[in-house]
Amino acid sequence: MNIRLNGKDYALIEGTATLHDLLQQLAIDGKIVIIEQNRQIIDRSRYPDTAVQPGDVIEIVHFVGGG
Amino acid sequence: MLEIGGKTFASRLLLGTGKYPDATTQQLAVEASGTNILTFSVRRLDVFAKGQTDPLAALDLSRYDLLPNTAGAKTAEEAVRLARLARASGMCDMVKVEVIGCDKTLLPDPVETLRASEELIKDGFIVLPYTSDDLLLARRLEELGCHAIMPAASPIGSGQGILNPLALSFIIEQLTVPVIVDAGIGSPTDVAYAMELGADAVLLNSAVAHAGDPVKMAQAMKLAVEAGRLGFEAGRIEKKRYATASSPMTGISRP
Fold first, then answer.
1. A4-62 pLDDT, tens per residue?
2. Radius of gyration of chain A (CA)
3. What is the pLDDT of residues A24-40, one digit of tens each?
4. Which DSSP symbol is given to B15?
5. Quick one: average pLDDT of B162-170?
6. Cβ-nearest to A28 among B47, B55, B183
7. B1, B125 in Cβ contact below 8 A?
């Protein structure tokens, strides 16, 4: 199953069903990130029950230094 | 005390978190600045690079109010999206509206800045737009309900200091909300000057991050903010064309 992740095609491994699973697959589940799925910002509390669908366009952003 | 959108801050220095030589220097500089408000940007996480270090990890973010910016936005829609993404972190409800209209000068697009600010105010944000030093634009932003106005001293990162003190002082005199001089600051002189003009606060980044010794410069900026503010509150003397003696002109002893 392929999604579009931060501008690139990305293949989900078997068992990655939710946004929470996706963060675990990417090994970034400890960081403060914000996820947008198909242009909708997803509340952090809903990551475990938000399904990832084939063809989803997902943006994962975070804070970086800036002025 | 500086008051923005119902929050009060002891420090009148807002500090950016970009472009420090390393995380330790940044952490020490932030500490030395005495700031209460740190600015950030929102960017894609590089999800494909493993084991990357987080440049902000050394900072205890719980000790500061976070002011994410919308840098990177060229339209109101892009700015609103970045602001909402930042707020979804659950760490902030303030936003620095920054909509750049020209890549070479990094000057803000006034029309898009107004549109973005209006939308974000409706959406409940505490809105601090980065703007030019145009008085009428600043007044329009205040009328919209912006919680502070942040006119530039000179182009972002240029270190040219305050190019038009008259324009800044018009804004400072006429606005009711806090005026935070943002962008273009180069040295403690510029900071003290802004504060002496009556600015409520100063926001800077490069002037500290790119200084020879960022930690020492952060402390210098802290002192400059305090000196300038005290000078403003004290009320400076009038400028006169000719000298006025400080010592008594009578009773001079001559043998």
1. 999 999 998 888 899 999 998 888 867 889 999 999 999 999 999 999 999 999 999 99
2. 12
3. 888 886 788 999 999 99
4. E
5. 97
6. B47
7. no
**Cα–Cα distance measured from residue B111 to residue B126, given in angstroms and rounded to the nearest whole number:** 19
For chain B, count helices (H), then strands (E).
8, 10
Catalytic residue among B50, B74, B96, B222: B96
Contact B71 A66 (CB under 8 A): yes
pLDDT given at position B222: 98
Give, in order, the Cα–Cα distances in Å from A45 to each of A42, A49, A59, B24, B38: 8, 9, 17, 32, 26
Beta pairing class for A57-65 and B2-4: unpaired
Query: What's the pLDDT tens digit per position in B40-64?
Result: 999 999 888 765 566 677 788 889 9
Task: Give me chain B's average pLDDT, please.
Answer: 95
B89 pLDDT exceeds 80? yes
Contact flag A67-B69 (C-beta cutoff 8 Å): yes
**Residues of A whose CB is below 8 A from B89:** 32, 34, 44, 63
Q: Identify the closest residue of chain B to A9 by CA–CA distance.
A: B48
Quick check: is B96 catalytic?
A: yes
**DSSP code, position B61:** G
- Residue B232, classed as helix, strand or coil, is helix
Q: Is B205 helix (H, G, I), strand (E, B) or coil?
A: coil
Q: List the single residue in A7, A42, A67 with the smallest CB-CB distance to B39.
A: A67
Contact A34 B89 (CB under 8 A): yes
CB contact under 8 A, A62 and B42: yes
CA distance between the termini of chain A: 39
Q: Which of A19, A63, A64 to mutate to test the interface with B (most CBs of B within 10 A)?
A: A63
